[in-house]
Request: fold
Amino acid sequence: MMRALIALGLAASLANAEADLDLILYGADGCVGHFAASHLAQQPNLKWAIAGRTKAKLEAVVADLAKEGGQSPKPEIIVSALDDKADMTWVARAKAVITGAGPFSVHGGEFLVKACAEAGVHYSDTSDEFYWQRWMIDRHDAAAQKSGAKLVLSSGFCAMAGDLGAQLTMASLGAAKGTEVALDAWLETYNGGLSAGVINTGKAIANASFPKEWNTDPYVLVPDVDAAHRVDTKVEGMSFPKYVSGEGLMVPNIFGPYDARLLRRSFAHLGQKVQLRVGAATSLYPKWTAFLATRPGSWNLKCPTQQVYTEGSWSYRFKASAGGKSETLLLSGKGDPGYHFTAWGLAETGLCLAGKTAGCAKAGAAGGVFPTMAALDADVLSKRLVSVDLLKVEKIAKAEDMIV
Reply:
């Protein structure tokens, strides 16, 4: 009884606190977090803080930001662990809290989600662990709906690039509401360093305990999906390798299962009936291998070299079809996708949720646990990412011409 009263008191204090910061970045002393902090320091008139477990490491980040310069180079420092002993009232100081401190299932990520859900503070992360994402939906979606907090999962390269490309392509197709759309998402280029985050996430998934059927359920992140919208039977929408007419031979996309699960949650939130296939061009892996082989240090699992960070690149092609019509868009970008796009994507999602990018967070949308495109406006976000040179969007007349 006493624990319940304490929890209620904490929730009340969090909800009643007044935000004096636009944004708090947790895990700023990690590799992705440091890149995100560098981007945030360049933004004008940003009231923000960096947070983490170790004061000395956070002070080193602030010192680096001061050397780099920028329009907002002096964030406040907040020291906090993520465990059942931590005082989490600091989250209510911000309009939005973002975190790159993964894997989230093993580093106390739920404590931050819970605090934001109860305080009505918007949140985003770079999570890939689908079972953890399902736990967050099951455990905290109701509280977020009640408080109005938008809890946005996975705003890094996996899976924001896929979610954004899907919505832009379907919008360009312009199919009537309620029409079933066939959507193909093919990753064509992924030139970046080996990511410690991806490897550690893989280890976390291998060691996690969750219902076995979650592994093969395409709608594991949409447990309440309407039966009429349950159109896929495989997580990636198809088996590989497979020859696709007009496309060529398709193979698995290493990020495909993570992207697909979250994309389907966006489809459900947006009332879209979509048959989804997520794969990769056969040329992706030879090109990636050549990239790694010709850039010493690209396999450094702590943080990429400056060469890898700046010389990386990616491209992701989307084809939406319905009623005999189709539309194809190619999304691409410069820089290591696993670090550059992920770090800036996380930062830009935070700026959206904090209201620093006008019209980016969907107006009037209720709180809850969302993928990026269920909470953010695809058109506004894409234009913002183009403006900061993180994204390029091209309309492709003949999709088959893009397989090389």
